[in-house]
Design a protein that fits this description.
Layout (H helix, E strand, L loop, with lengths): L1 H10 L2 E10 L4 E9 L1 H7 L6 H4 L2 H21 L3 H4 L2 H7 L7 H5 L6 H18 L2 H12 L2
Antiparallel strand pairs: 1-2
Helix pairs in contact: 4-6, 4-8, 4-9
Length: 145
């Protein structure tokens, strides 16, 4: 719906001001939002993105499980987690139904070498742990997210 789209947009940027006005000729409320986009926010901050703000509740729950999968693979290979996949890759994975290597390839920055090295193991871990998404969603509901 339009309201969901607006809410998703508002979560994706830093809102500076919201103006609303009733248009009597058409009988509708008009909203104007003054905001900073992600690039402006990153240049003013320490470069970290709060994915709780950027992703929907369902996507963030999936993102948390994907981070656990990445951490497991990184520990197995003795690598830092960001070598396996970046947070931005996990955020993109959280928006798709990740069940194949071809789907992984659609994410910008995930190349053939990374897929060859981590792809099948990552998807296997994800399939084994995807039920944990519900656990995180219920935790989120209890905390009021």
């Amino acid at each position: 719906t339009s309201q969901e789209e607006l809410n998703k947009f508002l979560r994706s940027c830093k809102v500076l001001a919201v103006y609303k006005d009733f248009d009597h000729s058409t009988g509708v409320w008009c909203y104007s939002v003054e905001y900073l986009d992600d690039q402006a926010i990153l240049s003013k901050s320490n470069g970290k993105i709060d994915y709780r703000e950027k992703l929907t509740k369902d996507e963030f729950a999936k993102f948390r499980v994907l981070r656990e999968c990445r951490k497991t693979l990184a520990a197995e290979d003795g690598m830092p987690p960001y070598v396996v996949f970046l947070d931005e890759h996990l955020a993109a994975f959280s928006k798709i139904d990740l069940v194949s290597l071809d789907q992984m390839k659609t994410v910008k920055g995930v190349g053939d070498q990374k897929i060859q090295k981590y792809g099948e193991r990552f998807i296997t871990l994800w399939c084994a742990k995807r039920a944990d998404v519900e656990k995180y969603l219920s935790e989120s509901d209890e905390k009021g997210r």
